Amino acid sequence: MGDTIFGKIIRREIPADIVYEDDELLAFRDVNPQAPVHVLFIPKKPIATLDDATAEDAALLGRLQLAAADYARREGFAEQGYRTVINCNQYGGQTVFHLHLHLLAGRRMHWPPG
Which of 38, 98, 100, 102 is catalytic? Predict the structure, then answer.
């Protein structure tokens, strides 16, 4: 599962506030939130970056997005709006090299983001 902090969370070696889990995905609240709602959705399969994903990962990446959207609807902030972000590599702002999707909500987002 990779030797990143996210791999350790998947293996339950590090505690996390888990809000969603299935056989392939895990979601937990970010410990350094950038919005009132900031949840990270990760595949349990260790993929370092979006650039490392292959065609074989297409369904998994789709499930990652759909899980985030389902969470937004279930928690009641989908109608007002939310943002999903996948950072890739250093200049993209990625700091943990286990692919992850940020779901941000609970405040108005601005453009450009950064």
Answer: 100
Whole-model pTM?
0.95
**Is a pLDDT exceeding 90 seen at residue 114?**
no
Which amino acid, one-letter code, is at 26? L
DSSP-assigned letters across all residues of the chain: --SSHHHHHHTTSS---EEEE-SSEEEEE-SS-SSSEEEEEEESS----GGG--GGGHHHHHHHHHHHHHHHHHHT-TTT-EEEE---TTTTT--SSS--EEEEESS---SS--
Closest Cα partner for 77 from 32, 109, 111, 41?
Answer: 109
> Residue 100 catalytic?
yes
pLDDT of the residue at 27: 98
